[in-house]
C-alpha cells in the first residue's frame, strides 16, 4: 500500500522485487486486499499493473521506534544497512515518508530521488564481516566488552577489555570505537575475531561521545606521520587519479595545457608505490625520499624483466 500510494501504479514484478517476494505472492495479496474492500486492483495487458485508486490514503502518521532509529543513521548506504540487518526497517521508513507527500504534481524532484549514497571505495569491494549486526545489538546493552583482536603487527589475536562508544563507518570499512584504560582506540572489524559481553556497565569519559571520539581518532590517524608527495601528472590521467586516490589526492593545479601538479598525502613514504600504476604519466618531484622509493622499485622491476 505504501509503495502504491507513492507511485499509484506498479507492475507485479516491480512490487515483488521491492518486497522480496514472488510475483504469485503479490497477486495473491492484491486479491486479498481487494476482497477486504481496499481500493486496489490489477490491470491486465501490456501496460497493466497493480493500481491504487487516486485519493486513497493509508495512515502513515507514525514511524515505529526502529524506523526512527534507522532514519537517524544518516549516510549509510543499502549495503551497510544490510550488514547491520536494518535494511528492511530502513526501506519501510523511507516508504512511509515517501507516502506522506501531498498528492498531485510535484514542482521539484526531491533530492532523495537524485542522490545515491555508496560508501564503497572504487576498486575495493566492501569487506565481508561476520556478526556485525549481532555486535551492534550487543552494544545497545551499554555494557563493557572483552574483544579478541589481532593488531596489524601481531600474528595472533589477544584479548582486551574495552569500554565501547559504538561503531564508525569510514570509507566503506567498519571500526569499533572504544576506550582502553580511559584512552580512545580504533579497532578494525576485519581483525576482530570475537567478543564477549561483560556484566559491567561501560565507563565512558565525561562529555565524550561517539561522534567526538571518532572525530578525534580520525584526525589523529590522518596526522600520524603524514607525508606530502608532489608530482606532475598528464592532464588526461587526472580523472583516473581522482578515482584511485580518493581523499589522498589533496590538490591539483594546472601547469600547462597537458599537465597538472598534484599533491598526495600518505601516512608513510613506502605508500608512494601506489603511484607506480600511473607509469610514465606521473613524475614525483618531491620529497627526495619518495623519489628514492620509486627509483629503487623501478630498478628492481627492470632487473626482474631484464632477461
Describe the structure using short key phrases.
Arc Repressor Mutant, subunit A, SH3 type barrels, Alpha-Beta Plaits, 26% strand, alpha+beta
Report on the architecture of this protein.
With 307 residues, the protein is α+β, with helices and mostly antiparallel strands. It has three domains: 2-113, Arc Repressor Mutant, subunit A (Orthogonal Bundle), CATH 1.10.10; 132-208, SH3 type barrels (Roll); 227-304, 2-Layer Sandwich (Alpha-Beta Plaits), CATH 3.30.70. It contains ten helices and twelve strands. It has helices spanning 2-7, 12-19, 23-35, 65-72, 78-83, 87-99, 132-139, 210-223, 238-245, 288-304, and strands spanning 9-10, 40-43, 49-52, 143-149, 158-170, 173-180, 183-188, 192-201, 227-234, 249-254, 259-266, 282-286. A hairpin with an 8-residue loop joins strand 4 (143-149) and strand 5 (158-170). Helix 2 crosses helix 3 and helix 4 (65-72) crosses helix 6.
Strand content: 25-35%
Distance between the termini: 70 Å
CATH topology of the largest domain: Arc Repressor Mutant, subunit A
How many domains?
3
Shape: extended
Based on the structure given, which CATH architecture of the largest domain is correct?
Answer: Orthogonal Bundle
Strand order of the largest sheet: 7-6-5-4-8
Number of helices, counting only DSSP H or I runs of 4 residues or more: 10
In total, the number of strands is: 12
> If you compute it from the alpha carbons, what radius of gyration comes out, rounded to the nearest whole angstrom?
26 Å
- Main structural class: alpha+beta
Q: Fraction of residues in helices?
A: 25-40%
Stretches where pLDDT falls below 50 for ≥5 residues?
none
CATH class of the largest domain: Mainly Alpha
Helix and strand sequence: HEHHEEHHHHEEEEEHEHEEEH
Biggest sheet details: 5 strands, antiparallel
Q: Kindly report the oligomeric state of this protein.
A: single chain
Integer average pLDDT: 82
Amino acid at each position: 500500500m505504501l509503495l502504491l500510494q507513492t507511485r499509484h501504479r506498479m507492475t507485479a514484478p516491480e512490487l515483488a522485487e521491492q518486497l522480496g517476494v514472488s510475483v504469485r505472492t503479490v497477486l495473491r495479496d492484491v486479491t486479498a486486499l481487494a476482497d477486504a474492500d481496499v481500493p486496489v486492483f490489477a490491470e491486465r495487458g501490456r501496460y497493466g499493473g497493480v493500481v491504487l485508486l487516486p485519493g486513497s490514503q493509508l495512515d502513515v502518521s507514525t514511524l515505529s521506534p526502529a524506523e526512527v532509529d534507522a532514519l537517524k543513521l544518516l549516510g549509510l548506504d543499502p549495503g551497510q544497512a544490510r550488514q547491520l540487518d536494518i535494511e528492511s526497517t530502513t526501506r519501510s521508513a523511507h516508504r512511509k515518508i515517501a507516502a506522506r507527500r501531498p498528492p498531485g504534481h510535484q514542482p521539484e524532484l526531491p533530492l532523495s530521488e537524485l542522490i545515491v549514497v555508496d560508501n564503497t571505495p572504487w576498486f575495493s569491494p566492501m569487506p565481508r564481516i561476520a556478526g556485525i549486526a549481532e555486535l551492534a545489538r550487543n552494544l545497545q546493552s551499554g555494557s563493557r566488552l572483552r574483544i579478541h583482536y589481532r593488531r596489524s603487527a601481531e600474528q595472533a589475536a589477544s584479548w582486551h577489555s574495552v569500554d565501547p562508544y559504538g561503531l564508525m563507518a569510514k570509507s566503506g570499512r567498519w571500526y569499533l570505537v572504544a576506550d582502553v584504560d580511559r584512552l580512545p582506540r580504533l579497532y578494525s572489524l576485519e581483525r576482530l575475531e570475537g567478543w564477549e559481553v561483560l556484566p559491567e556497565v561501560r565507563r565512558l569519559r565525561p562529555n565524550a561521545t561517539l561522534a567526538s571520539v571518532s572525530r578525534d581518532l580520525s584526525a589523529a590517524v590522518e596526522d600520524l606521520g603524514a607525508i606530502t608527495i608532489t608530482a606532475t601528472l598528464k592532464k588526461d590521467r587526472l580523472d583516473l587519479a581522482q578515482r584511485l586516490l580518493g581523499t589522498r589526492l589533496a590538490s591539483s593545479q594546472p601547469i600547462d595545457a597537458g599537465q597538472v601538479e598534484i599533491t598526495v598525502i600518505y601516512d608513510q613514504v613506502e605508500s608512494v608505490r601506489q603511484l607506480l600504476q600511473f607509469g610514465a604519466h606521473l613524475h614525483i618531484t618531491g620529497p627526495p625520499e619518495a623519489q628514492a622509493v620509486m627509483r629503487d622499485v623501478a630498478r628492481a622491476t627492470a632487473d626482474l624483466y631484464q632477461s
